[in-house]
Amino acid sequence: MADDLSVPPLPAGTDTRVFPVPAAIEDQQDVAKAEKALERVKVVAVAVDDERGRAVVLTKNQISASTKKILPEYLEGVPVEYIGHAGIEPNPPVLPQAAVDAAERLFVHNDRIACGSSLSAASVWGAGTLGALVTLGDGTLCGLTNNHVTGACNHTRVGMHILSPAPFDADPDHRAPTAIGRHHSFVALASGDPRQVQLQELDVALFDLTNPDLVTSMQGSGLYDTPEDVADPIGGMAVKKVGRTTGLTYGEIIGRFSTPLGIPYTADRFKSTVYFQNSWAIRATDGGPFSMGGDSGSLVVTGDGAHAVGLIFAGATDGSISYMIPIRSVLRGLGASLLRGHNV
């Protein structure tokens, strides 16, 4: 059952062949072989790179060399890349990945807790990432992360304490968890038949900063300040992020998902698949994963750090592919703006 949760089905009515294969292969026997090969590798999603005019097919199973020879290199005239072993990890992960050696779990700058650090609601046993500090329209200062990190998938009570690092990450060799805020709100997650339920766009939560002097807008331990300016994602864009599990990583955006992206949620009080629209795929360019369990909520910025691009909210089980919500959509939905220069 757990394995089934890692690959939600594409919405009913979606062409499971991804594209009409006959348009790319003339021999009908080869068409049948290609279709069966796609069924075997289990297509998870298709990302379209409009900027470079190509598509990327993500599959749950690994794609062998013999299978790759069967699959068409072009579909309807569009060059296609296949990436295997990209099954989707449930939100939140059963247990967040232990922070790797390169990550500090709690990032500190000027003796203040920095963005990219571990955090959770006091009522949640798990850990995610403090993505950024934001200012609401009325001037309220808040911290930004995912609903499934501090919102307990719609079930955290208003006013619940937000701790950094998360108690899950506490040990004698690191700073004790500190209450840095109280839960403010979340954008509710909705599940159901994607033909009848409005597709989800955001997995976000806010918490009020109870003592703004405890935190800084710096990302990581002095790596770079949170940018105020926003850039829309495009294929091939170089990006980076700081997260609780994998620390500072570099990647490139490979495209926008062309069909609803089904993310399985397995929280204690919310177990369902949520279908997202306007989400994007990123892969690492520095030899490791771009993000893993526990990095949810990380702010993605351009390679030069000048513009914010998105918020990590899901990924493949092995970290090979990360899923991002555009930050412009996040800020518009919350009526917020990114905070820069705070205690830097």
TrEMBL record:
<dbReference type="InterPro" id="IPR043504">
    <property type="entry name" value="Peptidase_S1_PA_chymotrypsin"/>
</dbReference>
<dbReference type="InterPro" id="IPR009003">
    <property type="entry name" value="Peptidase_S1_PA"/>
</dbReference>
<protein>
    <recommendedName>
        <fullName>Trypsin-like peptidase domain-containing protein</fullName>
    </recommendedName>
</protein>
